[in-house]
Amino acid sequence: MKICLITFQYPPYPGGVGSAIYRIARNLAKQGVNIHIIAPGPHQLRDKISPVTEDGVIVHRTFSILSDHYADPHGLQVLGNYIIQLHKKQNFDLIHAAFLFPPGFLGAIVAAEVKRPLIVSVRGSDWEVLRYSIQHLANLRWVLEQAAYVTSVSSELLKKIRRMVRIKEGKFIPNVFDASIFDARTLSKIRGEHNHKLQVLIETFLRMKSEGRIVIGTAGFFRPIKGFHVLLKAFGKIVEVYPDTRLLVVGRLARQAYKRDMLQQISDMGIKRQVVFTGYIPHPEVMAWMNEMDIFAFSSLHEGSPNALIEAMACELPIVASRVGGIVDIVEDNRDGLLVPADDADMLSQKLQCLIQDKELRERLGKAAKHKVENRFSPTQETKNWLEIYHLVLNK
């Protein structure tokens, strides 16, 4: 079986979509699937693309327009022609697009041109945000109508799509936890492999942690839709009651303007000393940071199936998360985490303070979260789901 998978993100670029596609492709390759990834890359449109093989997957890092919601039509034409020429050499069995635009739009055009079935994977923010764009809505509907099969990362997301578009077939497949991707070493063990600035940060953080301070953590590639500003408001209320508490932010803020706004918010709230930013961290090392957290907070305004949330649960962390999107498929309120309304800093603060006060509750929720991930969110099941969908589409 030979698959062409067009994606919005792929390592080393940060983001949950890229992490998920890397995991899916890697595990499919282990099952004998010949898979070519068409990913964003650093090249100019006239540059020659040189594919590389990574973990059994052939990766074509192309142009940055593939991660641009407002991609230039000429750039998409160049990329589409590249994929069509690649198909003539490889003879793909199907086209799989991860993210509605540009990958889904590009995939639909290519699939029609080369007469191959199309699978479209909707990841969450692509639908939740772009459907409100007059420029994009007609394109999104057209892409979904062309697909032989549509997948989503949450049950609620698939319902929303079906209310607006008549799709042929669909299924929701949540993200999973794949321990083999992660570095099992502790933060103190990996410290020496980083630049001086990060070494000092790790050393300072571990010293602070050894003093017994409660650490509330969060992780991801932070854009406005991730609701980081809500978490900051909630944390500001917590510090008024528990001034020794710290907020650990693993990952980077997506845009300079957003970063500037968030740093200004932190300064205005007077909590600079209590907030620790790591900046970009390679995905395999994220769990080393998570293992130093006491509580994990996830304040998204919209969400698909967040990798960071599942990873935190695998670390046996008690969770407080927004009741939105695919999060409700992952966390059961009061059983393996606590759910709060999105964009509600007061409620988020209250639930986090409940966990600060109650060590037994933290331990109970953390153990239940880890048990759920081990039993329901396995990469083996995810790979099986994808193989079944591929075979179903090809056998029509």
What would your notes on this structure say?
This protein has an eight-stranded mixed sheet with strand order 3-4-2-1-5-6-7-8, sandwiched between helices. The protein has a six-stranded parallel sheet with strand order 11-10-9-12-13-14, with helices on both faces. It has two domains: 192 residues, 3-Layer(aba) Sandwich (Rossmann fold); 198 residues, Rossmann fold. It is of the alpha/beta class and 396 residues long. It is 47% helix and 17% strand. Helix 1 crosses helix 16, helix 3 crosses helix 5 and helix 9 crosses helix 14.
Distance between the termini: 15 Å
Radius of gyration from CA coordinates: 21 Å
Largest sheet: 8 strands, mixed
User: What overall geometry do the principal axes of the alpha carbons give?
Assistant: globular
Quickly give the structural class.
alpha/beta
Q: Would you identify the CATH architecture of the largest domain?
A: 3-Layer(aba) Sandwich
As residue ranges, the low-confidence spans are none
Under CATH, the homologous superfamily of the largest domain reads Glycogen Phosphorylase B
Task: Provide a concise account of the structure shown.
The chain has 396 residues and is of the alpha/beta class. The chain folds into 2 domains: 2-176 and 378-394, Glycogen Phosphorylase B (Rossmann fold), CATH 3.40.50.2000; 179-376, Glycogen Phosphorylase B (Rossmann fold).
